């Protein structure tokens, strides 16, 4: 089925001047961008986005990092977008990510790992709504 996933080009991706390269690869892999913006999360909005991880030992570090600079959230559309995108970006820990994936090529650590991808259709919808209003989502067949 055609699905949508929410991705974030994280602050490390922006700092390393990789917005263009990562976006090029996303499009090359067949994901259609149907919403996109640059924004900066506060500690509050970053904490809200990652609320499911609130009790994890890395939560404070994660919130600190995600609010450390601008990021680029996008909604992507494709057949089997959720699973295909997670394969495309590679494992959360870049040392375990497959060769040629975004995280294997660009990420420094499990915390600073360049990019986010939704883990289910349901979470993708919630995450998309966290960043975008309905009016900001467009049709894009290209
Ligand atoms: P993401 O897929 O965006 O969603 C949860 C994030 O938590 C994950 O990417 C990692 O960046 C981060 N994370 C997971 N495990 C750790 C860890 N052990 N230390 C720091 N950050 C982590």
From TrEMBL:
Enzyme class, broadest EC rank: transferase
Record's keyword annotation contains Heme: no
Catalytic residues (UniProt): 116
Subcellular location: Cytoplasm
Cofactor: Mg(2+)
Reactions catalysed, as given in the entry: a ribonucleoside 5'-diphosphate + ATP = a ribonucleoside 5'-triphosphate + ADP; a 2'-deoxyribonucleoside 5'-diphosphate + ATP = a 2'-deoxyribonucleoside 5'-triphosphate + ADP
One family name in Pfam for this protein: NDK
GO molecular function: ATP binding; metal ion binding; nucleoside diphosphate kinase activity
Gene3D superfamilies xref list: Nucleoside diphosphate kinase-like domain
EC number: 2.7.4.6
Domain Nucleoside diphosphate kinase-like stretches: 2-139
Name of the featured protein: Nucleoside diphosphate kinase
Annotated source species: Fodinibius salipaludis
Record gene name: ndk
